[in-house]
Amino acid sequence: MKSGYHFCLLSVFGMLVFSCSPNEQKEEKEKTYSLEIIDSVQVDYLGEMMLLDYDQNSEKYLLATDSYYEYLEVNDEGEILLHNKFSEEGTSPVNQALGLGYFNGNVTVFNPPKGYYYFKDSSKVGELSIPYPHMSFMMYPKLGMFESGNKIYYPKPWPETMNVNFEEGEFYQALLKMPIIESQDKTTGDTLGILKLPETSELLSDEVHGFPIPVYTMDGDRLLLSMWFEPEIYVYKKAGDGFEYEKTIEIDIPDWVPTTSVSFENADQFFAENQKKRPGNLTNILVVGDYYLAIYNRGLTEDQMKGLDPRADGGLSVRRKDPNFAAVLDKDFNQVATNVPFPIASNFPMVVNNQGEIVVSKVAGLSETEDDGIILYKLKLLID
């Protein structure tokens, strides 16, 4: 009996050793990530427009010209539901369209110095006034308005009292120390700056790093912020009516072309120094299922820019050499992929629809084929 018992033990032990032998272990296959076109939709409009936003409730897409003054609303099949152009005259004049997107189902335009105007079916249906003199020197890539409780949140405009001087380092420092997002009480109209860069940010050092273009995305109670010209994401969590800084995520992007910082004393040299190249930009953060996609252009070095003129051909030759990519992160911010390419003719990725598809408009000048209208690509994040 003992010999049989020992034989069984040895047999089991041998099977365990054999099955766990390093030579026989199957290594887990490394996952690959790609963005594939699964469908395309044609919009019957002869002209160039970019897809800017998507309303989840009505499932409408918002497209606009570069100036944001003319826009289309289309459905999932590309049918035009509304074609409108803002006017600088009349009862609801839009003198500056510096931001455009959906807010509570309405097409909303940032129209300083008035504030935000809401439009439905081409008619103004409301507004959010900013109750202090303010100014803005840039067009916002994303509208950035959202609502929570009794507060409305939006990018904080510059106060009119701010000393704007692009040749002084102190101006850039003051700009970066300002609140990035402001809240407004829907009942009282009181405003409060509620989100700033963390003190640990390198952007707050005594150097000029660039002109900030804040772009942020909400995912539940989490807010993800990009300042555009650095490969980093600042993570905040909703706390009451405000946000608390949690951490900074550095995106590993091979061949990223950084801006060249200058001292405060040489602030007037910043743009001249960086015009020699095309610095990288982190332009958006998309939520796609269980993943975050950090959208970026890597940039072009001074050598790569030789022979290219950004002012020629509408900048198409430069864009062709510096296309859109994505880095993929899981919800714990582990980076699982980088340099995942978008189709070469894709405009800046802005939209994820209710089906989890990334929808981008096609840049006609970057395509080898001609189309009778605007083309929207529907992309899926594939994991193999």
Kindly estimate the percentage of residues that lie in beta strands according to DSSP. 35-45%
**Principal-axis shape:** globular
Quaternary = single chain
Helix percent reads 10-25%
Number of helices: 5
Question: Order of strands side by side in the largest beta sheet?
Answer: 1-28-27-26
The total beta strand count reads 28
CATH superfamily: TolB, C-terminal domain
Q: What is the arithmetic mean of pLDDT?
A: 91
Give the distance, in angstroms, between the N- and C-terminal Cα atoms. 52 Å
Largest sheet: 4 strands, antiparallel
CATH fold-type name: Neuraminidase
> Can you tell me the CATH class?
Mainly Beta
Query: What is the CA-atom radius of gyration, in angstroms?
Result: 25 Å
Low-confidence stretches: 1-26
Structural class: mainly beta
Q: Do you know the CATH architecture? A: 6 Propeller
What's the number of domains? 1
